[in-house]
Amino acid sequence: MKRTIDRRAARTRRALHEALIALILRKGYEAITIQDIIDAADVGRSTFYAHYTGKEDLLRGGFETLRSELAGARQSASDRRDAGPLAFSLAMFEHACRYKQVYRALVGGRGGTVAVNEIRRVLADLVQDELRGAWDDKAVSRELAVEFVVSTFLTVLTWLLPRASKLTPLEADQMFRHLVIAGIGSSIGSTSRGAASSG
Amino acid sequence: MKRTIDRRAARTRRALHEALIALILRKGYEAITIQDIIDAADVGRSTFYAHYTGKEDLLRGGFETLRSELAGARQSASDRRDAGPLAFSLAMFEHACRYKQVYRALVGGRGGTVAVNEIRRVLADLVQDELRGAWDDKAVSRELAVEFVVSTFLTVLTWLLPRASKLTPLEADQMFRHLVIAGIGSSIGSTSRGAASSG
DNA sequence: TGTGATAGTGAACATTATGTTCGACATCGG
DNA sequence: CCGATGTCGAACATAATGTTCACTATCACA
User: For residues B79 and A183, which has the higher predicted lDDT (pLDDT)?
Assistant: First the structure.
């Protein structure tokens, strides 16, 4: 079988991904058509479909790099032992800060669904790893906790992106951790019955 | 001007909404075309566009009833004063439980984006109301807190729906409150830093 | 019950995007 | 150099969208 990828194929794929990003920045994900992409990438129509099944497929492919970057960041963080649990978050906020433009274009518009779902999956895998072996709760299953962590992260991220003029990744990370670990119980004065009284 | 809606118009709109729900249950939101809808509703094509700008618009319209139902439920709950803050959640879980089929079809598939966003908006308004006047936190703004509550609610809901064979709305509500108010701090070695190093 | 206003019909049309096919050509790796 | 593989690009089939228009049905109201 073929082990190494043909240069031409690699070139084509790279061109397509770059074109996609450029287009996302220019007009947002949703408005992009296949025609736009292959024009920008200077690639034949049939060639496109030889590689990807559609816009969505192409976008998804672009997240492989993110996945490995994050995995690496998390690894080194947990090696240094300076981040405690949820070590991924700071790395992710930093990543988002660096590629802010792309993130905003992806997450902002409502076309972001595909992208957000993909990010969600990448994160879910990471969090799953981190919570493994350190879970002790009768009220909430670990699966749900993973979803909770991921969705809170994304909430903070998408809330931040349109306003992230001066917020540093570190501050963002602190807000995230505050919410995820302590909830908002300390911030609403009212006493709630039965809510936090599990155990 | 016209205050009361013409019977014919009302009839048409109702037919369209019913058709949409039926179709959502049968084949999922995303796969539905305008043609499907007007066939099922037995309505002329031009008539459809005289009332709605598209599928999405039609769907959105259907949430007006949800909005008022929830507002009512929340009102009576806060009248009885038996729910503390976040009074909406139990009502919403009950609503979701009653219309489980529809919710599953809407939230489950990835076509659910439009629906989920709409639910998100309805909820955000409610939560906004409930958190008004009772917010005291330096670390997290109220706006973000609203987003946090809503997204946590939706996380619990979407996590529950595919498995909600035996969960009661009350139990769901407790999980939700636990997460939102106390976070997961008590379940992981929150301040410890060795907890996550599983490898 | 008649009448003007309003709503609905449905086929035709323009438009836009998708995804496939195929013969000819280019480039790769060996 | 050669066979395998990738690319081109135009043509095609398909499918959905949204608009138009002349005609018909129904409504609200006097």
Answer: A183
Per-residue pLDDT of A150-169, as tens digits, reads 999 999 999 998 886 678 88
Asked if the Cβ–Cβ distance from B145 to A187 is below 8 Å, we say yes
Q: Which of chain B's residues have a Cβ under 8 Å away from the Cβ of A183?
A: 179-183, 185
10 Å CB burial of residue A198 (0-12, 13-18, 19+) is middle
Read off the pLDDT of residues A130-139 as tens digits, 9 standing for 90 and up.
887 667 777 7
Q: Is some CB atom of chain A closer than 8 A to the CB atom of B144?
A: yes
- State the pLDDT at residue B132: 79
Residue B195 sits at the chain A interface (C-beta within 8 Å): yes
Contact at CB, A187 and B148, closer than 8 angstroms: no
- Per-residue pLDDT of B137-150, as tens digits, reads 777 888 999 999 99
Residue B48 zone, left/alpha/beta (φ > 0; ψ -120 to 50; rest): alpha
Nucleotide nearest residue A37, measured CA to C1': C17
The DSSP symbol for A112 reads: G
Over pLDDT 70: what percentage of chain B? 83
pLDDT the model gives residue A78: 66
Q: Is B175 on the interface with A (CB under 8 A)?
A: yes
Interface of A with B in 16-75 (CB under 8 A): none
Number of other CB atoms surrounding residue B160 within 10 Å: 22
